[in-house]
Please model this.
Amino acid sequence: MCNGAHRFGGDGRQIGEMGTRLVTVDFLERQNVSVQETDSIGQPTKIDHPVVERAAVQDVECRQPHGKKVPTIAEQSPPLSATTDEPLLRTALKLAASALKADGVAFALGGGYALWVAGGPEPSHDVDLVVAETDVEMAANTLAAAGLRVERPPEDWLFKAYCDADSSTEPAEEPALVDVLHRLGGVPVVQSLLDTAVEYEVLGVRIPVLPPTPIMIAKLRSLSEHYCDFAALLLVVRAVREQLDWTEIGEATQDNPFAEAFLLLLDRLGIARLN
Model:
């Protein structure tokens, strides 16, 4: 509309001028618009509480609202979530990795977070770091000095490091768990495995990350009568299947019937074509 002016509510008070031709447009109902008596052209107009989900503009000729509604400001809009708190598990990952790097302990990111870097879902239970079996004590001392609470479980293939939450938070948050593994699938971690890691920037920290294939081999080797969750594995495999060496995986897990069953399932689902 050219050379026209808009008026509110049909009461004759002009609040916006676009030229010499005047066209009345009702886009808010009168009870929701108040005009101060002292207002005139060029002075500000007070608008009280626009109507939410009403048609914004009515048809000039037929006085019917246009079909498409546009969003308007609610009388009391709920505040947007402005929290920038980082999940404690991510904090634990960065703290542990930075401490090991600073002390020169050879390590690599493994487990779910390494697969997350490759495109898999982000884990929510723990962080897996991998160190050589000969460096276990050095790694434990480094993480303890960095403020993590180190515990030695009965299992002899890892130790645990906990990153405790700020005690002032309410409700109290569970500590974040970092598993430091020195055996994968029963096989001791050696430097040659750590050398296969590729450095990525993870959450702002440069971290060596194991490739997906050895991680998947370790996961399949761990399948047994007591733990055989194919559903969780399927989520990961679907995300990183193009980065996996299926020949190597098949050869490394051929003695595990549960792994064999999972690989057959992948073949039948068309996720991976195995020989």
About this structure: Residues 88-103 form the longest helix (16 residues). Residues 4-8, 13-18, 27-41, 47-84 have pLDDT under 50 and may be disordered. DSSP finds eight helices and eleven strands in the chain. The two ends are 70 Å apart (CA to CA).
